[in-house]
Specification:
Chain lengths: 339, 347, 290
């Protein structure tokens, strides 16, 4: 059986006045109903654009230049625009980072939730209102009947993000795409919002693609992870495998740069340098300049995504040496000092 | 534990802000809307130590740090720098004594000035070095923060976020301060860049003998950098003590909630559980949080009593009177104190 | 205060990565606008070299010649004065008055807006009340009233437009200062103990003034139009000195027969407006690029 969503070799380009920014460079991923998948990377890695491309929500003037999006075994990229939109939007709902700008400021929040059931699912006014209140209850909004009439600015950040989740759910999607949904929230509120998303997945089998720069958030929420760097997926696999034994130097370094709240002072590993300029074509591995374990071969060929096991892949030429990486870093602590 | 001389102290600090109080309000004799962002805070910073100040948005941690560097006139209370109180606005020497690094690397640098102009202006105005030495000194400052000398002629927009933050640090160091306040210095940066800046701050603190107040909402970062930690909630410090104790045995229910809410890497957790296989996802869904513990309600919600009472899962009748900081363990500077009725130690 | 020991070079060598590369973009509007405006100014300055005709000398037998007539490239008006010469000499008056009449409101408004936005308090309250009062009057009514009171002539025009025009700049700059003074770079400047005048001039002014300069571009056009209107009411530049306003006014009597008499100076106003609008666009683009 084919997965619910399959993305193959997706490319997104942003034409600029004097150059073209090749922001997403051949991303492939899959997601299934009831499954939580994490997409991790730093700003500029192309993770948000990948997510937005799935729903046709790319910011102007970015556009998808090639790639296939397969939904339920049907290649929607081949369908006419309207049909493609209908299929994609009915299967997926989106939650954004900034709940204040994602909501219409002059419309009652309840009506914003009821809009999709009424317009798309053809429910009557009373029925769609009942549905909206049910959804508000579902995402943990106390006194949903009263809050139905509230405007976005009258609610706190955590409440607004719950409303956004309810809106994403209102079209009865099988997959929720969440773009940094908790980054703007305080840590205690973040935990609550994540638990709402988690309970939806477990109880109603709604799938999740979570985009985040925060490895810890993805680690707590997702079962599989895609690590993105400079527009490509550099490593993917089950979360515990990737975090426990990374097979790409970027994921390896990223993991060690995350501070641990439960362990007293230890020196964080840093990644020297900066990501490549995505306006240029990068020769060889895009991480080579910043990699501690680089060899000459890394500059010559673009490493292919090698399938290690059926559900695990890495785009590193030297993945076989990965077990020695920890020792190599320990042996050369001086290197850390150099930024 | 560090127990150097006191370099900075805050006693009973109150900072309140008045809302818009227009002519119509004055005619109608409506009292202005007053927000107490900081409401009676005591702090001591010792030489060579790093004090972590944590709390969620709106707890007053940024207001407190801005008070300390003299950006706001405190409504009440005393700020002492190296033992002498700040009277009115700080003197030039007092300004030099405490410097601040801001959060946003994009708005914290004047976009119309080159790095050299920014540093040179401070070096000249405060007469840190003779005029003919300004350029040499500016280059030294760039060396300190790991930027190339050619940065002097460049404007901030030519740098990445992490590099801008280094410029911000160089600017603070230009005045050769004794105390550095880092106000969320890494929260606008990518994770890998965060590590760079944290390491840089720790190195500088060591080599220059600075004392530091590290303000952050990120518990994990605070754990990594601070010797002592103070937790703020709605304008008050509700728990303070050596970082180890506060994180290992939090005494206040709010600190426990904060620590419990921090997302953790599955591998970090696994390492602590002795490498046992763990499930990153709880088998049973976590119950959706009820409204009572959702968000801070503001001091009005808990008039007179403990401010955390409306959210607190272990609130009792006694919480209607606000507790002061009570001793949990330790003595002198190693004291671990928490403002909760459930703590039985002396106030 | 004791000096903190700084180990200088010993701690970290300059190992930073290269700063982000940025392509220098060609600012089309700014270059075209400046070129156009420059040509206008050159034409005005070198008017005697371009045409030998006297803009005020009447020659009634040669009146109302069509454009292309020998010796009169753009024809003559009803007094037989050369239209090209009048246009060029008119540019001298109009551009000078237009630019000069905007400079003093720009300076006064910027200073007042800077002080008002930074310090707030009673000064801000009083200033904004005055601004509200000036704004409440229609612009032209106020200018016409002032010129009437002061008597016609370019001097009166400067004074009248300055007295009315500063409010727009004060408002713009005050608004920008209110935003900029809470930016962290302004806070950093304060925290490092720099004196207030220095923060205002060195840190805030360069960041807030560009908005006002952009507005002044369109304001120059408005001012030229105001001079045109004043000329129409007989309160402008006294005849026979050529200016575009009086040319349009005289020309409109011949709208049906010699339409170009009004259209040519009108066209000059449009070109000036276009050049200034392009400059304003270019400045905005520059501002956004930082």
């Amino acid at each position: 059986m084919s997965p619910l969503l399959e993305v193959e070799d997706l490319h997104v380009e942003i034409p600029l006045p004097h150059a073209t920014l090749h922001a997403v460079r051949g991303v492939s991923l899959t997601a299934d109903a009831g499954e939580a998948v994490g997409l991790v990377g730093e700003s500029g890695s192309g993770k948000s654009l990948t997510l937005r491309a799935l729903l046709g929500l790319l910011p102007q003037p970015a556009r998808v230049t090639s790639g296939r999006i397969v939904l339920d075994g049907v290649d929607v990229t081949a369908l006419p625009e309207r049909e493609r939109r209908r299929r994609l939007t009915s299967a997926m709902g989106m939650v954004f980072q900034d709940s204040l700008t994602a909501l219409n400021p002059v419309m009652r929040v309840g009506e914003q939730i009821a809009e999709t059931p009424r317009r798309k699912l053809g429910m009557s006014g009373a029925k769609s209102k009942a549905r909206a209140i049910e959804l508000m209850d579902r995402v943990g909004i106390p006194e949903p009947e009263r809050r139905y009439r509230a405007y976005p600015h009258e609610l706190s950040g955590g409440m607004r993000q719950r409303i956004c989740i309810a809106i994403a759910l209102s079209g009865q999607p099988r997959l929720i795409l969440a773009d940094e949904p908790t980054t703007a929230l305080d840590v205690t509120i973040q935990a609550q919002v994540l638990s709402v998303i988690e309970s939806l997945r477990v109880e109603e089998g709604v799938g999740l693609i979570l985009v985040s720069h925060d490895l810890a958030v993805v680690s707590e929420t997702c079962r599989r992870i895609y690590v993105m760097y400079a527009g490509r997926v550099v490593e993917n696999g089950p979360i515990l495998d990737v975090l426990g034994a990374p097979r790409h130097p970027y994921s390896f370094a990223l993991l060690r740069s995350v501070p641990d709240p439960d362990v007293p002072v230890h020196r964080l590993l840093t990644i020297p340098g900066q990501p490549p300029d995505l306006m240029d074509e990068v020769a060889g591995c895009s991480f080579a300049d910043r990699c501690r374990f680089v060899s000459d071969a890394c500059y010559e060929q673009t490493p292919p995504l090698v399938q290690l096991t059926p559900d695990r892949a890495t785009a590193c030429l030297r993945y076989e040496e990965a077990e020695r990486w920890s020792d190599m870093v320990a042996e050369a602590p001086v290197q850390e000092e150099v930024r | 534990m560090t127990s150097g001389a006191e370099v900075l102290a805050v006693e009973g600090l109150v900072q309140q802000f008045e809302g818009r109080h227009g002519l119509a309000d004055r005619i109608a004799r409506r009292p202005p809307h007053v927000v107490r962002a900081v409401d009676g805070v005591d702090l001591v910073l010792r030489e060579g130590e790093t004090l972590g100040l944590v709390g969620e948005s709106g707890c007053g941690k940024s207001t407190l740090s801005r008070c300390v560097v003299g950006l706001y006139q405190p409504t009440a209370g005393v700020i002492r720098l190296a033992g002498s109180p700040v009277a009115g606005s700080p003197t030039r020497a007092q300004r030099r004594f405490v410097q601040i690094v801001f959060q946003d690397p994009y708005s914290s640098l004047n976009p119309r000035m080159t790095v050299g102009q920014t540093l040179g202006e401070l070096l000249r105005y405060h007469r840190i070095v003779p005029r003919d030495q300004v350029e040499r000194r500016s280059k030294e400052l760039l060396d300190l923060v790991g930027l190339p000398h050619r940065a002097l002629g460049q404007t901030p927009r030519q740098f990445s976020g992490g590099q801008r933050q280094r410029i911000g640090i160089a600017r603070a160091l230009a005045l050769e301060p004794k105390v550095l306040i880092a106000d969320e210095p890494v929260s606008a940066l990518d994770v890998s860049v965060q590590a760079n800046i944290i390491n840089l701050l720790l190195d500088l603190k060591q080599s220059l003998g600075l004392s530091m107040i590290f303000v952050s909402h990120n518990m994990a970062v605070v754990r990594q950098v601070s010797d002592r930690t103070a937790v703020m909630y709605l304008g008050r410090i509700i728990e303070t003590g050596p970082t180890e104790q506060v994180f290992h045995a939090p005494a206040h229910p709010y600190t426990r909630l904060l620590l419990g809410s921090v997302p953790r890497l599955a591998t970090h957790v696994a390492a602590r559980n002795g490498g046992a296989t763990i499930s990153p996802i709880p088998a049973e869904p976590v119950p959706v949080a009820a409204a009572s513990i959702d968000e801070a309600t503001g001091p009005e919600g808990a008039a007179g009593g403990c401010r955390y009472r409306p959210r607190c899962p272990v609130a009792v009748a006694a919480c209607a009177t606000e507790p002061g900081l009570r001793l949990v363990s330790g003595e002198a500077d190693g004291r671990h104190r928490a403002a909760c009725q459930h703590v039985t130690g002396a106030e | 205060m004791t000096s903190v020991p700084f180990p200088g070079r010993s701690l970290k060598p300059g190992t930073a990565t290269k700063p982000r590369r940025r392509a220098r973009r060609f600012n089309g509007p700014l270059i075209i606008g400046l070129t156009l405006f420059g040509l206008l100014i050159l034409a005005a300055v070198f008017a005697p070299l371009i045409t030998s005709a006297d803009p005020v000398a009447q020659n009634l037998p040669q009146s109302l010649l069509p454009p292309g007539s020998p010796g009169h490239l753009l024809g003559t008006d009803r007094f037989g004065r050369d239209v090209l010469a009048r246009l060029l000499y008119g540019a001298r008056i109009d551009l000078r008055v237009g630019v000069l009449a905007v400079v003093s409101p720009l300076i006064i408004g910027t200073i007042l807006g800077l002080i008002s936005g930074w310090f707030g308090g009673w000064f801000d309250t009083v200033l904004m009340r005055i601004v509200d009062m000036v704004v409440a009057f229609p612009f032209f009514v106020l200018v016409i009233g002032l010129v009437f009171a002061l008597g016609p002539g370019t001097g009166s025009i400067y004074v009248a437009i300055t007295m009315v025009g500063w409010v727009a700049y004060a408002r713009i700059v005050r608004g920008e200062v209110l935003i900029a003074k809470n930016q962290e770079y302004a806070l950093a400047a304060r925290a490092s103990g720099l004196p207030t005048w220095r923060i205002l001039l060195r840190h805030l002014l360069p960041n807030v003034v560009l908005q006002a300069v952009v507005f002044s571009m369109s304001d120059i056009v408005l001012t030229i139009l105001a001079i045109v209107t004043l000329g129409y009411l007989g309160l402008g530049v006294p005849p026979p000195t050529p200016d575009w306003g009086s040319m349009i006014q005289e020309g409109q009597q011949f709208m049906l027969t010699q339409w170009y008499l009004a259209a040519l100076p009108g066209f000059a106003v449009v070109i000036t407006g276009l050049a200034l609008a392009l400059i304003a666009d270019g400045l905005v683009e520059r501002m956004n690029r930082r």
